[in-house]
Amino acid sequence: MGLLDLFLVASVPVVKVLLICGLGSFLALDHIDVMGESARKQLNNVVFFVLNPALISSNLAQTVTLENITLLWFMPLNILLTFILGSFLGWLLNKFTKAPQNLKGLVIGSCAAGNLGNLFLILIPAMCHEKGSPFGAQDSCHTYGMAYASLSLAIGAIYLWTIVYNIVRISSIKSDEAVNVNDENCDEASSKSLQEQLINKLDLEDTSAVDHGNESLLPCAKTDKQGKVLISEKIKEQICSFFRNINLKVIFAPSTTAAIVGFFIGLVPPAQKLMIGANAPLHVIQDSALLLGGAAIPTVALVVGGNLLRGLRGSGVHISILLGIIAIRYLFLPVIGILVIKGAVHLGFVHADPLYQFVLLLHYALPPAMNIGTITQLFGSGQSECSVILLWTYSVSSVSLTLWSTYFMWLVA
């Protein structure tokens, strides 16, 4: 199969995503105002609490079984590697660009977390249904492709809400602490200025009276002893409370809870017989979840398009940070991914399924996860900067994702 044919197969799904995102941007324009900021927030809540969980649980329940889960053991490890490698490269990018504290977590998260969810559920089925696809018959390709995409979606959601969530959370906490320290320094400086003015005005000659006045008029002033005690307590608190800063409760976010439910139904035969199949007693629940989950993909794409419109207005993101994130996501990670997957195939960790290998390779070439924008909204920090990063990374992904998909299909075929 020629590279031109592979390029056409890879470009169609990307064009579909771009068309839906473009419609979302159009509906979010001020003179249209169908998907204004408040409407996008409400849709985002519906997706977060209802549509995404339904999508994850329904697809996992009907595609992940005891027979194929043993063949997919390398996928969670591969996704974890993308998060670890991306986080390390993002940390290096922060060091080289000297990113401000309030953006460090956002930069690391953008480099670590790829869009393993809805984008996969659009790309993989579309590639399977394209004429000339190198992945075999359409039906089997679609069945296995949905299993791979659903597992990627579930594992990616767990990693996102446990790793990236806490990275952004800790970064925002440190940013708030830095702001508070600056405010305290300003208050202390103004207090000293006020002290000098009072002393000059009162023209106090008695030094003891001056000292007494300092203590009474400036209760916020700290002695060196007190300052040392506070510094030691802060250091001790930071060391002792490191694991307390890791908020493990987010593992029970709606998407991860839905993944657990989907795994339970798919892997437990009695539950599968009860829910899956036309003759199952409770198949109406599964059918309803599939119906809800089907609305998640276009809804998220519309919201993404509306949010990307904010990036056109610009923000304080330095050009070096944008170029660094683009280089990490579309150059360094895909090259590393090729080495990792080829090494895993050589060692026998990955079975000889071209579609499975393609999905593993694609984990390294995706744009940043859309839920990073949701995380920044939760902490109220870096929202406009996140919009700019997503705008430019997704604009570039229309070309890079097509090229990498073409090369990956040629590589595994």
TrEMBL record:
Pfam families: Mem_trans. This is Protein PIN-LIKES 3-like. GO terms for cellular component: endoplasmic reticulum membrane. It is found in: Endoplasmic reticulum membrane. Belongs to the auxin efflux carrier (TC 2.A.69.2) family. It comes from the Eukaryota. It is a multi-pass membrane protein. Its main location: endoplasmic reticulum.
